[in-house]
Design a protein that fits this description.
- By secondary structure, the chain is mostly helical.
- The protein is built from eleven helices and no strands.
- The chain is globular, with a radius of gyration of 17 Å.
- InterPro entries: DUF4125.
- Pfam families: DUF4125.
Length: about 220
């Protein structure tokens, strides 16, 4: 089943606050994304604001307000001290996709994560990969449009869902990560699937009524 997202909950003022926070977060991320340098020059996706807005909003519209507020503060604090969380996220992914370059040129310059933190991140990642597997089994056509799932499938030109999530979680403050862990634990306790809810937002923002309609519309 698809559970409620932030965008679907009752209460107009709460919805308005959440949507405004999501818009603000996505704009902050876009600004940092524009200042992220890529080997070989600027990536095509850095010029595709509509796609970036749709994909990132789809994720954040599932989040509760305290988590949104905490991550928004992370982005503000990063700007204050001269960090770029988007650059760091992609840099952390290179631990899998380009390990030699990562260890030589990136790892020494980004915050080192404790063993306790890594363990928490890996627990979250395992839950989310399981949700993604479940989603792909139930919506195979939409699933084919997703990233490959596991780090073992990474290539220099293709980053898996697992590796991407590991990079992203690694940029969160301790407070944001703790709130995020509570969020995913709460979803699991309710039998909800975060991949389903996120992609549900994606297809609705893309003009479909729901996941079933979007699945039917995909090419065989």
């Amino acid at each position: 089943m698809t559970g409620q997202t932030t965008d679907q909950t009752d209460g107009g003022s709460a919805n308005d606050t959440a949507r405004a926070t999501v818009r603000d977060i996505v704009r902050k991320e876009w600004s940092q994304f524009q200042r992220t340098n890529n080997e070989g020059g600027r990536a095509a996706c850095q010029g595709n604001w509509p796609m970036f807005e749709q994909m990132r909003s789809s994720q954040f519209l599932t989040w509760p307000q305290p988590l949104l507020d905490s991550y928004s503060h992370d982005l503000d604090e990063a700007e204050r001290v001269g960090r770029n969380l988007i650059t760091e996220k992609y840099g952390r992914m290179m631990a899998s996709t380009a390990p030699t370059e990562f260890h030589a040129n990136i790892e020494p310059y980004i915050p080192r994560l404790s063993g306790e933190r890594i363990a928490l991140q890996e627990r979250i990642i395992a839950m989310q990969v399981a949700w993604a597997v479940d989603f792909r089994e139930r919506y195979p056509k939409l699933g084919r449009a997703m990233r490959v799932l596991r780090t073992g499938e990474d290539m220099a030109t293709a980053t898996s869902f697992e590796t991407y999530l590991r990079g992203e979680l690694g940029t969160y403050s301790a407070r944001t990560l703790d709130l995020y862990a509570g969020f995913v634990d709460g979803l699991a306790a309710q039998g909800r699937n975060l991949t389903e809810e996120t992609i549900g937002n994606t297809v609705r923002l893309g003009g479909f009524a729901d996941l079933a309609e979007a699945e039917t519309a995909q090419a065989a």
